[in-house]
Amino acid sequence: MSLIKGGAASKLLRAVLLMALLGARPSSATVQVTNLTNGGSISLSNLVTSALYVQVGDKLFGNFGFGYVDTTGNTDNYLTSSDLTLSALSNEVGFGVSIQAPLIAQGPVIKDLTLQFSVQVVNSPDMISGVQLQVVGGASGLGEANVAETVGFGAGGIAHLFVDANSATPEDYVTLSTPQSMVWITKDVIVSGDPDGYSETNPIQDVGTISIINQAFAQVPEPGAMALLGVGMAGLLIVRRRR
User: Is residue 29's pLDDT more than 80?
Assistant: First the structure.
């Protein structure tokens, strides 16, 4: 039996390596997906009510959840999922989403928004290794505005982030101890004009606002892909030496 030599062997090794890297990744074909390019947007209500998934780059976002309460008790002014917009995001960290949320609390009022979604890597051998959270907003007087976030899978959390919108650098970043192909994100977004409900003489000065929440995900090659890459490179080196 003759050995495969020269260019044929090189092409075979490349084909095997490519199939190994791409063939085992999860597919988005089994769910209803809308693709968003950078700058594209969609109402959050479409994602919550229709169980629609959004793909940004090699990230698939789905399982959206929304909850909201405030201390005014006036349900006519309650925030709904249709008031929020989700846009595609791509920055120096990686692909992600930007959520526009018009949250304003003035005086002795507390507004609490809960958001949840999953993010999964598709069509890529790279796994999620880090999570970035950025917030646009602020506070004055006794006002507060912050976002607390849990990164997890299954029933447990594997990482936590916290951003005070009124800080000098309103962002946080966490590196996952073990890179994941899919994680769940749960956000607790709170704005308040006066979290303790004091009766101030001039409550108009006590304001908390959040208008944008940005989320991006860093990636690294999964160990199996790196091992296969090493095997492929070693094979190509052997073929070159034989030639």
Answer: no
